[in-house]
Amino acid sequence: MTTRALLEVIALDAEDAVAAQAGGADRLELVTDMGADGLTPTVGTFAEVRAAVDLPVRVMLRAADGFAAGDVDALVRVAYALRAAGAEEFVLGFLGEDGRPDLEAVEHLLDVLDGCRWTFHRAVDRAADRDALRKQLAEQPGLDTYLTAGSAEGVDDGLPVLLAEAARRGEPGYSQRLMAGGGLRLDHLPELRAAGVDAFHIGGAARPGGWSAPVAAGAVREWRTALDASPDA
Q1: What mean pLDDT, rounded, does the chain reach?
Q2: Averaged over 60-83, what is the pLDDT?
Q3: What residues have CB less than 8 Å from 133, skipping those under 6 apart?
Q4: Measured between alpha carbons, how far is 96 from 61 in angstroms, rounded to an integer?
Q5: Span 105-127, mean pLDDT?
Q6: Which InterPro entries match (predicted)?
Q7: Sequence spans of domains, the chain
Q8: Which CATH architecture is the domain 6-229 placed in?
């Protein structure tokens, strides 16, 4: 039996959210400032998106470009505010200068999230040792997804890593869902689906007009149709 693949779309505001839902998205990643690869949105923007759609919304917790945690106290404050506004799912991930996960920063935020589900984002693609990172994070509460291209350079370069990690599903450190994203194209889908990958993340692919234009429902629908036509392993 074919399992419906999850399609997550980056949204910057309520207009994006409505278009993504109309196109068949299953979940949103809510961010601001894609010039910095996605930072934490305002509580007001989250509230507008939450009122506009009934999709699950994963909210980015990231204060600045790069993968250092920066001002953790500020992130804790905004996480409290987002939780108070009703946010229940999040996206985060921090590395130290040595390329290892910044467990102290992660755990400070997880205290606020109090068991909420969350994604470790593409910081995994910059890790000194991605296998070790997965094993260090394996027991962190709420972690259910890794967003990864398999490489800092994108899916074209990282496809062999994605396929290898998909094959390790269920091993220690590999129980979380693998969500492919980062330079993802439609022609990547058949091989990833055949390997059992069942979650996909798109940003620019949902915006034919570029990041200055909103999400296009038709572009999202093209991905939804392609995923539904690609059988899983």
Answers
A1: 96
A2: 95
A3: 100, 101, 124, 127
A4: 16
A5: 97
A6: CutC-like, CutC-like_dom_sf
A7: 6-229
A8: Alpha-Beta Barrel (3.20)
